[in-house]
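Quick check before the chapter quiz. The format below is the same one you will see on the exam, so make sure you can read both the input and the output lines.
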Amino acid sequence: MTRRGHILILVQNLPVPFDRRVWMESIALTEAGYKVSVISPCPPDEADQPHRVIEGVHVYRYPPPPTAASKLAYFFEYEHSLRHTRRLMNRVWAEDPFDVVHSCNPPDFFWVLARKYTARGVKYVFDHHDLCPELFESKFGRRGLLYSALCWFERRQFRMADGVIATNDSYKRVAIERGGKRPEDVAVVRSGPSMDRFQPEPPEPSLKRGRKYLGVYLGVMGAQDGVDYALRAVRHMVDQGFTDASFKFMGKGDAFDDLLKLRAELGLEDWVEMPGRVSDLDLRQTLCTADIALAPDPKNPLNDVSTMNKIIEYMAMGVPIVSFDLKESRHSAQDAAVYIENDDERAMAQAVVELLGDEALRHRMGEFGRGRVRDELCWDRSRVVLTAFYDRLLGLPPGVSGESAPAEAA
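Here is the expected output.
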């Protein structure tokens, strides 16, 4: 296959290949004929082989920074990432100059490193994963000087970008209205799952731990993800006398240890299993056994306009959802979810109990969700938009997929 160009992807938030969106993008572009290199933190258990080729993607990784627990700690985390990313960019350029720097946020400062290369004709792409100003406001409950600084960095990020990749239409509007980008320079590439990865597995009754039902949570466990709401909702269910359901909360994050303490304080160790991250097989088995899934992300300036990966992954496996009422969650799930207003934990508990008692409704919701992902939201559609965006950016004829991009790419 003739190489179509060399794309260097920068990501700081998660290591690859564990950042699922970045990894799917990397594989899609590699299969379309591009050379892809990625710079990211290194998982602790792979420290002996930080730089290697994985499934055709050239991976360069640096020692992970300490987990940030305060605003000052974030400064040191970002300084660590900036320093190592600069070093590895120099190494990649010396080995094989790249044509594009593809910067994933957060944070919004990789444009500082990219200027050296854009002066040499390298294109710059902003892959907009998070609204960093809204993330700060949602996490710390206020604005202030740091919020203003984040807005400045975001504006510079948009200004420098030759093209923007948005995760949904809400983020596309931000790029146009707040970032000043032309609509034709912004592509919506949704983080849909690969249906190959989400193939059904036989249910495993033992996961219910002797009870009739299994409820699940899947995803990051940070301060803004609302897992504490879900734990309190389970406590309300038990207090109301509903004892027929076990729960399994899968994932980790900087709030994980605090959530384990909250689970103990609420007396839920026998009701809620929290294994941390799980394998793909365990994930599929659990979702195929589950009767219901929780999306407890509270409504705030960030969550309301963000697409929650967990929502799409629940749908891909046909699991009906109980979700707080967020704009983009409604857009994604539609009739695959029941929506709870005002972040009401008691109402969430009641909705779970009612939905578990209606098997026919759960079946209809699950079938609708899986069909919507298969027909509209899966990664097979998103990858076509992504490769068409890059072919257009670099002035190349359509890539090896031979497919036309959906209208949403424009």
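If your answer matched, good. The chain is about 40% helix and 15% strand.
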